[in-house]
Design goal:
Blueprint (H helix, E strand, L loop, with lengths): L2 H7 L1 H24 L9 H18 L8 H25 L7
Length: 101
């Protein structure tokens, strides 16, 4: 089996893992950009980061203390998504489902 066939054979692990990783690193990018840009900035890159990460932050805010500042919430989001990826891997390992290479 070649590398491409292995990846396609384990799409059910790779697709959610990729989405979670992309969202996780986009949140990290929002943190870095948030240090340089005003929250109400009309910058299209900032608006794109906000539009992409706001739905996830809404869910993350439900399990994060309300007293946190937005930057801390974004960092909590990064950590929560990291542990969600670890949990996804643990579930696949416990179920002995092939994950590809």
């Amino acid at each position: 089996m070649s590398g491409g066939e292995t990846l396609l054979a384990s799409w059910y692990f790779q697709a959610p893992n990729f989405v979670l990783a992309a969202l996780m690193y986009t949140l990290l990018g929002r943190v870095v950009l948030g240090l340089m840009v005003e929250p109400s900035s009309p910058n299209y890159i900032w608006r794109w980061f906000c539009r992409l990460t706001d739905p996830a932050l809404t869910a993350i805010a439900l399990v994060t203390p309300r007293a946190t500042t937005p930057v801390v919430l974004w960092l909590f989001g990064f950590v929560w998504l990291f542990w969600l990826r670890v949990l996804l891997l643990a579930v696949f390992l416990l179920l002995s489902v092939p994950r590809g290479s």
